[in-house]
Amino acid sequence: MTRPARRTAVAVALMLAATVLAAGAADGIAAPHRAPARADTEGRGTWQVQSLGSGRYAVAWTSPVPLPMTDDRPRVVGPGSVLVGVTAVAGPTVRATVTAPVAPDGDDLDVVLSGHRLDETDAAPTRRVAAVPAAPLELAGTVTLDDDPATPGPFAVVTSDYTLPSLVVPGLARPVEMVGHVVEPAPEAATGPRPLVLFEHGRHSACYQPGDADAWTAAWPCPAPFVEVPSHLGYDYVQQVLASQGYATVSVRANGVNVQDEQVSDGGASARATVAIAHLDHWATIAADHQVDLRRVVLVGHSRGGEGVARASIRIPLTAPYRVVGQVLVAPTDFGWQTSPYVPTVTLLPSCDGDITDLQGQRFTDTARDLTDDDTSLKSSVLVMGANHNYFNAVWSPGSGPAPAADDWTGPSRRECGARSPGRLSSSEQRAVAAAYVAGAVHLFAAGDQRVLPLLDGSRARVASQGRAQVLSHAIGGGRSVRAPSPASPATPPGGAATRLCRGADEPRQASACGYGGLRAASAPHWSVAGDRAPTRQFLEMAWTAAGQAGGLQLTAPLDLTGRRLEVRTIADPRRPVALRVRVADSGGRTALLTPVGGGVLEPLGREPDVRRLWAQALVVDPSAAAVDLTRITRVDLVAASDRGRVWVADVSAAPASLAPVPERRLPILDLDRVTVAEGDRGVPVVHLPYRLAGALTEPAQVVFVTSGRGPGPDERLTVDLVPGETGGSVPVSHEADLRADRRRTITEVSAWATRNLVTDSYLGQVTVVDDDPRPRLRVRTQRLQIVEGEAARWTIALDRPADYDVPVALSVVRSPRPALRVGDVDPDWIASHIGVVEAGRALWRTGVATFGSLRPRRTVLRMSIPTLRDGVTEGPETLRVRLDVGRRTFVRTVTVVDAR
């Protein structure tokens, strides 16, 4: 969620599609704050590149202003938007470790956040698009349901708040507040046992100063006059509806996580899960007093809160005193590419999300498809056209809460997704949609009310309370029998469309990847981005140049469509609408051509390049009247009804009329460890990074480990097959041992991706190798403590023997005793090259001037100086005080400047 106060000159908001880990501590004697660096020109920030040896480089970009408080995470990318390294954030600095044959240049790197380059204020303009917004999407065949889940119920509602002792959360330095906002039926309301719905908000500024929209602080707890942003009150509008219908609800506050989640490698997902579980533990002690049935708990999380509650669902065992029967994830992050098996899940995705622009929450649906065979929990994705990221939370919406707030979508207001576009939803319209779909999911999961299922399962359905908003959905699970593209699938009839299998990845240089073709600015949430390390899925690509051309899937096992409907999750090239028919064939060779609901038209999802969405729409077909053997459907073809087009098929499935029961089961959980070892003297030692399994492994399982940052060459990928009964193992990670004093700590990151019959919780591990060779001694010496004006103040930074690493040095002028040296007392050429035009009478320390250098490998001496100017004016002694940051060590030195005689 974009911090509304003091917005930077750079519009912000994109994705960190890959694992995020802490980049290692500084090397050698210490790590730099800023040096050596590329100068900050035009407010673009500074780049720093440092060799780590063996073809590895530490790159860091420091922003000239505080980074925005968004739910997305920054990433470092190279040419072609390829992720070049594992990214970490510390304050205004974004770091990554890059493997490259030569040292990268900061000019060749970018820092991307929510689709925008933070380090480029003068980036080339994008292609001009006419400022005529597309008309709102119209979905043919849409029906309005009689039962509207947002209709208030008959019960009186009461509101209360509680505060518990602060919670100590692993990985966070300071405790997290435990505050809950409760909205529930009145105690006397005859509701019967009440399901509990818990809400958790996402990442937003924690503190604001009333009356000053530009004031902000990163301190925690909020110091006066700052007060906490009550983000947890932003879902009261849904709580009120649910409470009137007989549900107990609580919305929990997570500001203490938001201000500290840069300290942890998973973006705070584990911490948010810990907070949610702690509140559920509290409710286990008071459930009887509130008539709450803890066997029916639904979790609702927004943005990073969505990933947090999903992690809680993974972590909560069946033996807990409460049972999670469903979850609703609103514009969530999914940095870990995780999902919650056996937990029904609805994911709301806003088409105009200006924060999580890649709609990565789609992974909660897609990852679940192939994870295990008997998971019948519904996994639904819902695309809300014209919705942004913030407006689901009333406190984050301008004019709706006490704190400053903003529209996270940036860009011209009359462009598509702009505030004045006909297709954009107002904040109240967007919250009306959220109320309907969150309440509908709660009714389905906690009360078993399947009347709302058409809102979530790919049917073209709506309810009156959503107003003019257009919403699409698709689903897997729920008892569906699914067939995914495989090497045996593609087959093109004579004279048919062009078809091929492709990997779900945007890697234009890889022939096997689906790629975007001419859609480089589009968001493709079903695919991984260039440079991402996650396993990919296969899709069927089909392109045609004339109506009647066809292509499709030869099914690896027949589908039984008896009493079921056929669904084809289909991604359309958004540059033009397409129309399709579906042809099915049985094992005897008989075929039937069927028209999907809505005429088989798949509308473009976003017409302008930066709002295009390559998102799967559901082609839904009723095959009951087809003259084929519905028990053995062996082939499904798409037949073009439009002149030309291109689509990608994710899968086809046979969907039952009602949801199947969900097994009371949880998969075993894999956790990666972290280890620290001494480097050693020679060879290539192998460190075994442990992983543990919690829960019994009863079926063969598979996990993919990806190791990055260990040296030259690509990341290493290791696929491990686990057999029933295993409880753990290890990942081999090698490093180079030597007798040189080089980087003090080398970190190798390991990511775990569960692909079959298990899940991950702590999915990020690392091996830290500590250099055990003697370090050179450092000395900083001032050449002369007193100089005559016209001479240079000089400092020598020296090592007693060569090092095999860079020792970066930053020299900053700091406050000194009066009278302090002024700008006019320093050589004007030096001033011009370091700070430009500054008033001559201004104290030099007030300018914040700094200069940078580095002791390169094998060098032992670095000299730095500030030249003074002989001005011929009689004046007393003046002082010049500097701070030298040499890695992690800091030295302060003072020089006195006297008049020339």
The CATH superfamily of the largest domain bears the name Alpha/Beta hydrolase fold, catalytic domain
Decide which structural class fits the backbone: mainly beta
The whole-number mean of residue pLDDT values reads 87
CATH class of the largest domain: Alpha Beta
Low-confidence stretches: 1-41, 121-132
Largest sheet entry:
9 strands, mixed
Q: What is the helix content?
A: under 10%
| Portion in strands | 25-35%
CATH architecture descriptor name of the largest domain: 3-Layer(aba) Sandwich
The radius of gyration is 30 Å
Strand order of the largest sheet: 9-10-14-11-15-16-17-18-20
CATH fold annotation of the largest domain = Rossmann fold
The tally of domains stands at 5
Number of DSSP strands?
Answer: 49
Shape estimate: globular
Organism: Nocardioides agri
InterPro entries: AB_hydrolase_fold, TAT_signal
Signal peptide: 1-25
Protein name: Alpha/beta hydrolase
Structure description:
Keywords: Signal. InterPro entries: AB_hydrolase_fold, TAT_signal. This is Alpha/beta hydrolase. It comes from Nocardioides agri. By secondary structure, the chain is mainly beta. It has 5 domains: about 1-125, no CATH class; about 145-475, 3-Layer(aba) Sandwich (Rossmann fold); about 480-655, Jelly Rolls (Sandwich), CATH 2.60.120; about 670-770, CalX-beta domain (Immunoglobulin-like), CATH 2.60.40; about 780-900, CalX-beta domain (Immunoglobulin-like, Sandwich). About 10% of the residues lie in helices and about 35% in strands. It is built from 7 helices and 49 strands. The strands form 11 sheets. A 9-stranded mixed beta sheet has the order 9-10-14-11-15-16-17-18-20, with helices on both faces. Strands 21, 23, 24, 26, 30 and 32 form a 6-stranded antiparallel beta sheet that branches.
